[in-house]
Amino acid sequence: MKHVKLHVHTKSFSTDDLIINPKDHPSIKEGDVVEIYQPENEFPRLLLQVPPFKEDGVGRGKDTISIEQSIATTFQLRAYADVYLNVVNHCDVALDSIEVTFKDQYMGRSEMWRLKNHLNNTCVYMNKKIEHCGGTIRCQVYEMWSQGDRVACGVITDETKIVFRSSTSMVYLFIQMSSEMWDFDIHGDLYFEKAVNGFLADLFAKWKKYGCNHEVTIVLFSRTFYKAKTLDEFPQHMRECLQQDYRGRYYEDFYRVAVQNERYEDWSNILLQLRRLFTDYQKIVLQYHERSNIDIPSAVNSTAAQGNFLEVLNMSLNVFEKHYLDRSFDRTGQLSVVITPGVGVFEVDRELTNVTKQRIIDNGVGSDLVCVGEQPLHAVPLLKFHNKDTTISSVDDYSMPHWINLSFYSTNKKVAYSNFIPRIKLPPRRTQEPLIKVYESEQKGKLLKEEEYIHNSLFDYDAYDAHVFQLPPVHGTCLQRVCRTKKTSAAGLEIINRERSPPYIMNKNRKMSDPDIHHNFADILSSSVNKQKGNPDTLYNIRSSALGTEAQAVISPEGVSAAVVRTGRALINPFDPSHVTVKLTSNRRRWTHIFPKGPTGVLIQQHHYQARPMNGGSAADEASIDIPLYSKTPPPQACSVTPPGPLSPTPPLHLSHHTFLSDASSVRKRSLISPSHPAIHSTPPQNIMTFNNVNSTNNNNNIALLWGATGEQEWTPALTTGVDWKSLTIPACLPITTDYFPDKRSLQNDYVVSEYNLLPDDVNADFAQNRAIYKEPLTTVEVFKEIISQRLAQGFQLIVGIGNGATLECEIIPVLPPAVRPPLSACHYLSIGRVFHKLSLAGSTITVTRYRPRHPYPPFNIHYRYRFHAPHHDTYEVSWVSFTTEKLENFNWNYMDHYICTRGDTDFVLVEALKYWRFRTLLLPLNNPATKRILEGAPHCDIYPEPTRQDLDNLTNGFLKMTEMHLNKIKRPISNKQKAGVGNSPFRERVGSTRLPDKPRFRFDTMSAANKDRVRVAITNEIDQHDDFDDGFATEMKLKSTATLIEILEAMKNPVTGVGFMMQTVSLPSNTFVSIDGIQWLIYHVDGITNIEKAKDKMDAMHKEGLICHASGDFSKTFIIGYYMYFMLPQKKDSTDFISPLGDLQSFENEWMEVEVLGPRTPHCNASDEPHPQGALDIGDSHAMENLTDESKVPAFLCNHIDPNYINQDNSEDSDLPLYKNTHLDIDVNSKSDRIEWGHARYQSSWRPYTAYEMCIQWLTASGNIVADLIFGWARKAQGCSLQMVPIPADPLALPFTLKSDPLRGPIYIPLNEEPLLRDKAALFEGFPEETWPHRLFLFQEAIVARFGFIKCTVESTSHMGGGVGEHLYVHVTGNMFILIPTTPPPPKTSRIRSVTKNINPTRYPVHLEIAPSPHEAYITRHVSGKNKDDYDTSRRMGFLWSWNHMVSKKWRSSNNTPATGDENFQIRFLRDFKHFCANQEQRLSLFWEGCWELKEKAEEADV
């Protein structure tokens, strides 16, 4: 211990937290942890780690140290004061757990593990900011625990559990609009007011206070029952969505989406919006189907217990489990919160419970249940299984889900006349008759007649209750056999303090309470019961006493398949679950590491309180005080008395507000933080005894209590549950560690064991040499770390605290004999569900041992139909979804591990089953002036002009520049020609565009006649290389049309006037050029080649003669116009400096991005009904361009001749190439990561100007933040290429018949009002051939969306059953929204909708065959039918499907170039204006229609 002078410094002076001079402190070494404190300061002592020494030290005198200014402020250390400096032992200040928070970034589980490894053996203090991977990963220390106490600083060790909490998560708030929402609570408020004005207002206030930026969806949901016996009582328009429950009742589920994927700084306006929705919600839902002159069954809103609670959780899981598809880079974490007016009791289907439990646990999703009702006197949450047994002897069965985090919200209101808080809700009066006083009744004060009264002595209720919840007599021997037969790790039952049952109580059959068990072994139990029948020793006697029975039932995890009936099953007693224990499973321990250890050494939930009466005090204070279960009695001077009343929330989010304690006798206590604070905690006054030993549980590590998330806190009636504000404000991510592993016997009996070896060195020796660009292969240690990372990323958890694993081995056939095996250098165990992996590293061999359940759970696939009303929709639309469980044991880890070994070689490509992350982007035109006019207040939005030829040329120039410079990262050599002012770049102007001042280019078709004559000077073999300037530009001479191919080739090689070659890089041969540059060079330099077709013919001839070849060296690759690379073969045999190509096309394509350039499509035909050529972009005269740019031309839908195939066109019909290509991607371009990272790009093989171009980035072995840096860098660079890059969702429309669609998202149907256009016509296009009507209708709709700035968007949908997203999808030039023009698909595709509906259970979800064959038309039909008539209205199917691009956020907006991207006001205004146009408001649609006809009439007059 040493006295030193304290200085402070700023970050600008030094980034180190501590500056210390080694000369003054020779005993202190780098990496030591020192304790700094002032004796008179009551704040906790500061711990800092000694950084690398610097030569100048502090430079402020002898015996001085300097700490960073903010740290000194936090710990109240005064500058220039004397402090004690003391070196402490790491073990004395080790942390048990630490919580870190992060915001506005995506941090994958792999990054969390690597960050944890990075933090090992480092010192942290509260609010410390931590950076990793070059600053791409940023987080802050939030809370630390050591030996049961919160501390202000400590050292992270290997045993420290680290919890990651995100301030920017995806949060789903579901508000259950059950009948109780319209009831009043004890304070006279509606429960809805309590939920919205109370709980949500408090929640939003905490979000704002702590700077949370969650992406929130708020949904109101309810279930409506109909009083009907048969389906015939319902009219036809109601039957589409009806479902029937286990009691035969008909019902519908309604979902009202109030807010969808929004982020707000101020949520107060949303509270107002929710109050408005509440006003009419019940009326709209209950009267939704009412029609005039049609009788429908009466509708009733369900209670909370009978509502669609589990369905709601599963709908959010359908979104959450696809997190790898729409991967956002500015949020992490998923949270589903259900707000209910109930008390935490729900009647549920057993099978759906199984599905929900497995999906929530496997996906690692946080699920919170917030009850605004009063907390009952029994344990909750409580699931009551549907009892399909209607006999009078049947009993109810319950389950207590540990996978739901329960909170009870209570207001701070006081009742003047009483401090009593009821824990039970009085039932409603069943009669309206006036109440009769008891003493006035003829019974004279007695409730029953004397002869009907039964005394308590005649019936022992306690004994009866004890019997109901006792275990069957066959437990001791039978269940052991059952466990062995079942071969599962689900535990058997245990009994504690068994006692003898009264002989007069009969045994009854009980249902199982175990949803984990799916195997029917009732026969085994029955046989065991029969064998032991009549044996009085096998019966258990139950002794009752005033303190309650000591008989305790230990049951397996909750729930079971509905078909299983078990003999002699003990039921769960919700009023006394405290002694019921279950055997531990991995599911039970999946989330336990987010809970800190309390003073008693067991895990605690900080929002649980223990009510204790006060011993004395004034009458006003005679109420219970809520004590946090983890709190220790503070010293008197630190105590603060919380007034009695409602619960206080959890510990504060900012530790600086805490009261600090000091204890000079212990190093650990010097950094102790009291968990008490008047504003945050309820702490006991001095005369209150704290609740001791509340967390006591069985010391057996394999046993957990039935109730509660931790399995270590006992439930008592005095236990009060508050609100877990921490979970709701900064939700925790799934922990990367757990502590459960099956015992040896369970591994042998219940698991199938398999093993395989990885030899990375041997594998890489073969694959690394085959890469087009040699990449350093991963070492064995790097592969070992990466396969651990991948398992963590897929939801696995590292198992800690199980020793060295010597006792965990089970008998398997070893791959290598023990004598041959090298010693282990590393070994890790991981688990997810009932799947366990052991990864061991020995020398250069990695051994993967897999333990999979011998009897896996059966797969579930539950179909569900519902009605939902999304924002900006007009009605509750019918939709459907499937809830399915995933077979985790079937994941192909062997394939994944070899993918990692080979760095994603072509032999191990990404497949869908690997669940790789992906990010889809579109390249769109930048800076449309019409968008700016709309933002400035233009009255209408249909002001987007048709693109000019210059617009299209600029877009193609920009795309080629983007491809070369930023995607392929290719550079051009600086030649003499460029220095002289003549561009040698592929991004030269195309013929027909204006000359750019910074890229001068001699253009033949814009020259005067005299210049043209002068240029046409024939030359043969020699290129005149003298500089000839005309108006400052170099004049390049042309070759004669009779020039040979060799002569042309030599002219192209000219270093000044040639085509221009690429800079030499790895895998590119010498003399490599871009195909579109070669085409343009021929048109400029060879007589007779005046268009692109002739130039391509010349190139094909050169390719055929072997003069040019694809840059891969593959002669079978034909010549393709666009950004394709070809090289000129050497003509002299003795060329020694020529670099040869790879000779491997696939390896070349895996390294380089090559794209074909095509011209714009046109639906026009000439008089002979032949479509205009639509190949590559025509550099000469283009028929397509004439039709696009000449406004006097007739609109396509009114032309006499149209191309009948235009409606079915896509890129694949114009090109021989596949629609998409794949290439490798270097992710970590700035070398920030601590590992080798790579990814892949899947891109469209063809580019068309003024058409959206899709590119999808895919990765497994990359950090999310580093991928984000790469993509955002591309987005910035794209703007310099006249393009903007925007993200798009995996499923743009979210139609219900797509496999991966969001259940609460759907397109908006916008009808097109064609009636004013008909006038006296029977059909819209009467006068044209009838077979062209559908084509003309489509072209008419396409012309409308073009006026509003939508462009063609041919994207691949990975989520559609049987094909792409619809034939005609369009995206707005801002990227904000999509539009689909539904068309009738060709006959072979009509089976798509049938394949969807045939799987739906007709008994629960009726299928109507009258649905139109096209799924898009069927979707539209449901929007316009059923409101006024029963049958589908086939005459009103004309319209559009509008969908928002929810992936676009403000982060993608640029104030200069893309001001409308992500602008919500712009989007809403645009939708409103589009609806007005389609509805013909202000005659806008009619005027457009008439204007088109005027153009047609003028054209016809001109032809005459």
How would you portray this structure in words?
- Helix content is 22%, strand content 20%.
- With 1504 residues, the protein is of the alpha+beta class.
- Strands 14, 15, 16, 17, 18, 19, 21, 24, 43 and 44 form a 10-stranded mixed β-sheet that branches. A 6-stranded mixed β-sheet has the order 2-5-1-6-3-4.
- A hairpin with a 2-residue loop joins strand 10 (137-146) and strand 11.
- Helix 3 runs antiparallel to helix 4, helix 5 (309-320) runs parallel beside helix 6 and helix 21 (1075-1085) crosses helix 22.
- The longest helix is centred in the last third of the chain and has 20 residues, at 1484-1503.
- It starts with a strand and ends with a helix.
- The relative contact order is 0.08.
- Tell me the β content: 15-25%
Largest sheet: 10 strands, mixed
* Overall spatial form: globular
Q: Percent range for helical residues?
A: 10-25%
What structural category do the secondary elements indicate? Answer: alpha+beta
How far the N terminus sits from the C terminus, by CA atoms, comes to 107 Å
What's the β-strand tally? 62
Mean pLDDT over the residues:
75
**Weakly predicted, low-confidence segments:** 437-448, 474-568, 614-670, 673-699, 804-819, 976-1035, 1171-1176, 1178-1192, 1358-1366, 1385-1414, 1424-1436
Whole-angstrom Rg: 37 Å
Helix count, per DSSP? Answer: 32
